[in-house]
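Exercise 4. Each item below gives a protein and its sequence. For each, produce the structure-token representation.

Item: LacI family transcriptional regulator (Skermanella stibiiresistens SB22).
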Amino acid sequence: MNEMTRQPATLQAVADAAGVHRSTASRALNPDKAHLIGPDVVERVQAAARRIGYQRDELAAGLRTKRSRLIGIVVPDLANLVFAPIVSAIETVLAANGYSALIANAGGGVARQIQIIDQLIAHRVEGVILATAQRDDPVVTRCAEAGVPAVLVNRAEEKARVSTVISNDICGMRLAVEHLVALGHRRIGHIGGPSHLSTGALRLEGFGKAMAEAGLDADAVVTAEAYTRDAGRAAAIELLDRHDLTAVATANDLLALGLYQELRARGLRCPDDISVVGHNDMPMIDMVDPPLTTVHIHQADMGRQAAELLLARIGKPETDTVTRVIDSELVVRGSTAPPRG
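Answer:
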């Protein structure tokens, strides 16, 4: 029989090749039931399946069991490198538990995010992990209406309706300000993130508290319209036009890169003229010039815990809603120094 007419391998063929009953072969190839038989038998069956080219029909199995073993992951901007370690850690946990991920880029606003959720529901996902949450998030409402378990990562709602894993944004910004104060800075500004996002609101709160504790004026604040380099530069223009500063703490690393651009455009040097602190420690931010001092958030740990919480909720829908806050730490590099004079 030639390649064009070869019939696909069957479950019975796998059973015959492994020397087991058809029902045993079925269990060995089912992630939910493989633990019911001995590991040596599972390995023998799986080896036979690989040898003869058998592929389990996941769609048909899902229709029978009402389980798709698919999880949706929705991020606001795939180009933002901070989300790469989060998504990678999520996928690692899902794979270890027999799940696959459908990853969606939802940079088009709330309407687009709800459309994506509806598409994921149509693909019968068993749950979703959202890195897109607003402080009062309509996407979470849509998930609740559809009965789809959801977990938030990196961003939180103001009133926690679903389990959430975030970094300690207030304390992270406090670390940034305390570092600048310890270097001798007194005129410190802040480029904040969008106020409808928890990261923007909480990091601004942390800035205000840390400045007050240091006895310093916290009025030099401009809020960026988005977490992008262009938005960071636009905010930097306004901030530098209005205030005479020696240091700026930004609400994320992309905003800091926008500030870098504006400093160069004005002929100012970092850190000689203005020190800069970022937030997130996204991959490769140590490669810019000068390497960015930033607040490191544990991205992979957040992703891992978010995936574990979602799988726990899927397994036991009555599982309590929890919020996990992970401490961050300051990474000092070349963008901060004592003020001149």
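Check: The first strand starts at residue 70 and ends at 75.
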